[in-house]
């Protein structure tokens, strides 16, 4: 996988997604190891070594992390996904400047990370979307609805002035 050229990224992408949607994000997924495993979701992680193993989730089918973090971590049968961008994994560049294209690509990248963890869109219980402009809400919502069927996950959507890559761009 090629290194991502952060200086080539747009000053302010119109979309921040993750299973929460771009900057920092969390996805809680109810992951079943077998038909006999009890279903549960937990936001708390025990510090006892015997309570579970922290597993790094990584796939080359989604953009690599742009810093000292993982695409996702699975712990105690719960998946915590980092923010996801509309980057093309092979190039490290945004798919386009279009909010529609970025939304579709973010959801594709999220799906790849979910699949690598053994989960699916149906497993997601919470998402957060960060938009540069809330005027794009309707466009994003229409595309988002294609991935999440009823019962859809709980969701928060925020307008942000810009995401963390603004600082990287200005320092590049």
What topology emerges from the helices and strands here?
Elements: E1 15-18, E2 55-57, E3 72-75, E4 78-81, E5 83-84, H1 99-117, E6 126-131, H2 137-147, E7 154-159, H3 165-171
Parallel strand pairs: 6-7
Antiparallel strand pairs: 1-5, 1-6, 2-3, 3-4
Helix pairs in contact: 1-2
Beta fraction of the residues? Answer: 15-25%
- H and E order: EEEEEHEHEH
> Taking Cα atoms only, what radius of gyration do you get, to the nearest Å?
16 Å
What is the averaged pLDDT score?
73
The neighbouring-strand order within the major sheet is 5-1-6-7
Question: Are there runs of 5+ residues with pLDDT below 50, and where?
Answer: 1-14, 18-46, 166-172
Biggest β-sheet strands, sense, barrel: 4 strands, mixed
Global outline: globular
How many alpha or pi helices? Answer: 3
Broad structural category: alpha+beta
Range of helix content: 10-25%
Number of strands: 7
Distance between the termini: 22 Å
Give a structural overview.
This protein is an alpha+beta fold. The protein is 22% helix and 17% strand. It has three helices and seven strands. The strands form two sheets. It has a four-stranded mixed β-sheet, covered by helices on one side. Helix 2 (137-147) links the parallel strand 6 (126-131) and strand 7 (154-159). Helix 1 (99-117) runs parallel beside helix 2. The chain is globular, with a radius of gyration of 16 Å. Residues 1-14, 18-46 and 166-172 have low confidence and may be disordered.
